[in-house]
Structures are given as C-alpha cells and as structure tokens.
Amino acid sequence: MRVSRADLSKKPADVAAMFDAVSTRYDRTNAVLSVGNDALWRAATTRAVSPRIGEHILDLAAGTGTSSESLARSGAHVTAADFSQGMLEVGRRRHIDNPRIRFVFADAMALPFPDASFDAVTISFGLRNVEDPKTALAELFRVTRPGGRIVICEFSTPPVPLIKLGYRIYLETVLPLVSKFTSSNAPAYDYLNESIQGWPDQATLSSWLRDAGFAQVAHRNLTFGTVALHRGVRPLDSLPGGAASTGSGA
Residue 250: its pLDDT value, please? Predict the structure, then answer.
C-alpha cells in the first residue's frame, strides 16, 4: 500500500491525496496532538472573525467543517471550501442537517468565487499547505468585499527561545510517536513537522497580508506563540490585486 504524504514542494495533488488519507480520523488526531488546544484556537478564530447573522463567510481549507460549524452558529452562511475530496465527503456527511454550511471543492490559488463575494474570509492551519501562499492571499483579498475582514490561524514561531526549543523537540519526537496510534496515515504527520518548522514567523506573514492589500493588519500569539492569529481588513477604496481606487476624476 502506498503511503500518502506530501513534502515541502507542496504539490497540490500530493497535499490533497495526503489529506484524503487522513480525513476519517483527522479531527480526533488533531485534538490529541494539540492536547485539546485545537478547540481553544477554533474559539479564538471564531471570535476574531466575529460572524454575524446573514453574513457570507468563506472558510478556506475547512476540512471536515468543524471550524465552519463554529462560524455558522452565529446565523452566518458559511462556504466550507477545500481541495481534499476526502475531507469534503466527511464534512458533508457530518453536517448534512446544517443548511447554513455548503461544502465546495476549491483551489486556494484560483478560488471559484466572484470578486467581493464574502463579508469575511478565514483559513485555519491551511495557508501553510498551499504551494504559493502569496497567490492564495491575493485570491482571498479578491473575494473579500471592501470593508470585509480576513482572519488567519496558523502555526508560528514561539518568541521565547526556551519554548521554541521545547516545541521543536515536541514536533520531532512526541508528534511522530502519538500520530502512529491516532492517525490513519501516520507518515503524513512527518510532513506536519516539516511544514511547521519551514513556515515563516509572525512578522513575515503580516508583511504578506499587507502586500496582498489588507490594512489594519495585526496578530496575537496563542499558546506561547506556537500558533498565531492574524487579522486584516480590505480597505473600502481598494480594487482586486491590492490597488487603491483613484476614482474617475470627474
């Protein structure tokens, strides 16, 4: 049997196949590996998005829809988008009775949505898996309405050296051991370790958000900086691609 895992080239087909292979036990494995912190991170992300009744929200890399369910409790309409068909199938079965969540196959680098489609966009632990994260951020900017908001929850770099060292030891020793007993595809979690350690720090991701065109960019650390919550707003006078509107001059 072929073991399905991606590498740091992040070829879309490999990443999608890897997530297909872990879809059935994905949420359980995440809860164990994060020592329950995944629920706290999800709650913090939902608060940062601040979903409101009737809003349209894009939950990119939604996986099985656990984060989408949290967002939809407010009465918002959530588009749960992912490029793993396995994840989407699990999500559709789990949330079949929730009319406020729709599951859509989507490539983060070429989103199948019109410009300015969403009041808010969010992606949790998914931007790191995109082949070209800057292209994905440009796409997220494009589909966010002017005045709309973005929230990104992603693994990051602990600012305290001792915690950073302990986190690296956990990723390289504890994570592979635990994943053998909890995941349906343990080698995929070797990629998790590699992708986290190869991911840029908080300041770099913030600069990428600004380059994409978002304003009011800020972040706060969660769980000692092992995870960071990034936020931004699409300016009211912005155009797709991060350009500002200059008006007609009339």
Answer: 30
